């Protein structure tokens, strides 16, 4: 095992990533925005935590400076939903921009800041936690305008970055965790948090430089763009 970095790690899927990777023997460097949440329940010497707001360059740079010097796995998990506006006339442009800033640019800031610690002789995996709602082909219901657009932008940032990263021995994967029972997914979601994360970990295990940039669901299904 190696050293993993996880953003948005205090609750939901991020906290479960921390739990499962620690159980597997990884060293984990985890970011929380304000509250420690579930992070305060782990008693493990292999866990280090640090404040991280992916919307702030200063916070991201501080997080990266304090990160271990060699990183093998980055899980860009932090994200927000949008305003659940009922129709297009309700779209609030300032919140829409914030959603895009957090969900699309946040992970890019983290990759940029940690890049020098990820390009080394052994393969580094970077998981971008996206969503099926990013898929233009699959957008039958509409709505969730800013959330969808932010995750589509995240997918394109990732595919556009992956070619350069291959030269530096870094593989990207764009992951859809399923519709999961978290604060964001809600109680009606059919997928349990541990099942989503263990499925995504299996997808990660099959990553290579050759399949870098794929858009994959937690059960391994390839998704349409
Ligand atoms: N749940 C689903 O059904 C589902 C489906 C598809 C994709 N996803 C994606 O999966 C990821 C995790 O979602 P989740 O369901 O676990 O959601 P969640 O329970 O709402 O947790 C979101 C996490 O992101 C953090 N976060 C939000 N804004 C941040 C910022 N500016 N800087 C740092 N951290 C920030 C939150 O921190 P705070 O506690 O400080 O707010 C929290 O730890 C997200 O990217 C989401 O879009 C989820």
Number of distinct beta strands: 7
Topology order in helix (H) and strand (E) letters: EHEEHEHEHEHE
Count of DSSP-assigned helices: 5
Tally of individual domains:
1
Describe the largest sheet. Answer: 7 strands, parallel
CATH architecture classification: 3-Layer(aba) Sandwich
Structural class: alpha/beta
**Coarse shape:** globular
**Numbering strands along the chain, what is their spatial order in the largest sheet?**
3-2-1-4-5-6-7
C-alpha-based Rg, rounded: 16 Å
Distance between the termini: 32 Å
CATH class: Alpha Beta
CATH homologous superfamily placement: NAD(P)-binding Rossmann-like Domain
* Quaternary structure of the protein: single chain
Poorly predicted regions are none
Tell me the β content: 15-25%
**Ions, cofactors and other bound molecules:** NADP nicotinamide-adenine-dinucleotide phosphate
User: Helix content range of the residues, please?
Assistant: 25-40%
What is the residue-mean pLDDT, rounded to a whole number? 97
Description:
The chain has five helices and seven strands; from the N terminus they run βαββαβαβαβαβ. The chain is an alpha/beta fold. It has a single domain, classed as Rossmann fold (3-Layer(aba) Sandwich). Strands 3-2-1-4-5-6-7 form a seven-stranded parallel beta sheet, sandwiched between helices. The longest helix has 26 residues, at 93-118.
